[in-house]
Structures are given as C-alpha cells and as structure tokens.
Design goal:
By secondary structure, the chain is an alpha+beta fold. The chain has helices at 24-50, 56-78, 86-97; strands spanning 10-12, 19-21, 80-85.
Length: 99
C-alpha cells in the first residue's frame, strides 16, 4: 500500500449504526443498489406468474436480495470512514470551505 488517502464515499450515520453517503459516488452506489433491487423484484414477479414452478420467483428474489445487499455492503464498507459521523463530516467540510 502506498499510503495515499482513499476516497470516502460513506460515513457513519448519527443515530443508527449504518452508513450515509457523502459523495456523488456514494449516492451512485445507493442508486445502483435500488435499481438492482427493482429489477430483481420485477424479474421475481414475472417468474412467479410465468414459470412452471411458481416458487421460482421467490427463490430468485431471495437470491437477488442477498446478492445485491452483499455487494452493496462490500462496496460501502470499503469506502467508509467509520471514525466520524455524518454531523462531524459536514462540520469538517463546512470548516474547509470557510477558512
């Protein structure tokens, strides 16, 4: 590792133990996750109506949720700064804009 600072896309939320996006790339990750979940839900609904075993749609939906959620968590945690909350991050950014 070269010691260069990595990009921060997410920081800890203020109240819950989750992550909040703080950059455009972070928001793109959130939007990609939501789009993938919508496609998964549509595919599962279509399969439930048209597939010979109707439970196939539920299996596809469960696998899609697990896959989308896992990828989202991997990407989000790889670009997260767990040392500061959203409020601290915003205060720090505001301080840098107005020296």
């Amino acid at each position: 590792m070269t010691g260069t600072p990595r990009e921060v896309w997410f920081v800890r939320t203020n109240h819950v133990g989750g992550l909040s996006p703080v950059s455009a790339k972070g928001w793109y990750v959130v939007l990609a996750f939501l789009a993938a979940m919508a496609v998964t839900a549509l595919l599962a609904a279509w399969l439930t109506e048209t597939a010979d075993p109707p439970w196939l749609g539920f299996v596809v939906f469960a696998a899609g949720v697990a896959g989308c959620g896992g990828i989202y968590l991997l990407v989000a945690t790889a670009h997260a700064d767990w040392s500061q909350t959203l409020s601290e991050y915003r205060a720090k950014q505001k301080g840098q804009e107005n020296p």
